[in-house]
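User: Hey, quick favor. My workstation is busy. Could you predict this chain's structure for me?
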Amino acid sequence: MKPEMMKAVVLTEPTMAENVVLSHIPVPQVRPGWVLVKVKAFGLNHSEQILRLHEIQADYINKPIIPGIECVGEITDPSDSHFQKGEKVAALMGGMGRSFNGSYAEYVLLPESNVFSVRTNLSWTEMAAVPETWFTAWGSLFECLNIKESDTLLIRGATCALGYAAIRIARSTGCKVIATTHKESKLPLLKEADRAVLDTGRLAGGMQGITKALELVGPKTLRDTLRCTEKGGIVCSTGILGGVYTLNGFDPIKEIPNGVYLTGFFSNYPTQRIMKDIFTFIDSHHIEPVVGAVYPFQNLADALYDMDNHKVDGKIVVKM
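Assistant: No problem, here it is.
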């Protein structure tokens, strides 16, 4: 039997991590087309930081808002959906934590279309490191880059949760992986790649044989990444770790080398088939998702502070 009240983070204005507190609010009431999920754990994401510090001021954010774009848990009330009470699920994206309340709560009410049944051998903590991070890596590598065993893949900005996931997926397919970081102290964190490279901001001219490139630094280094890629190769721009969000003055005719293809991955449209494929891939390849640190829900402010200040390598998971 679900309680009447729950703990949650409720935001109405820009909020520093140290000022985040847990409020007591009513558990959401179920309605047709939506399901109530008891949250077991959730991962933290850079986009939630953007919301909390800046984006919350935008008119399109429905305030007050509970942040959180992903979670894993159990169905508490399936309403009129196909789910069963107690079913293990993952939920992500589609407006979660922006258009409607997200996962920084003990219970979350979600559209049926945002929730996906999961069968996995992973623990709740490991499972929570998967949904958004692995979906983005999966889509970037397979849907956009079409990676194959014969490829040499450059992952630029690889010392992040998404980068670690991409390395593991790509290596499991058999392709060669070259991974970069802009900090020399982080090179040992890329030991699972075939080659770790210190990124000075200019790699073109020093790279040979790159057939596919996953750009996680973003527009800040995209022009250089395009010049690193062999003719016939593909570059997928997925991340914005460099803090530059647009390509001002970008001339595609002059700046995309002849025969090199540029694409991008937008992670807003997960499906049940893709989520099933991801968890099946993880289990069949005996992969342990990289969890950088685990925090109890009552210490969420500490987790957010450590994310904001880049104190954790790998996915930060908050566990109920």
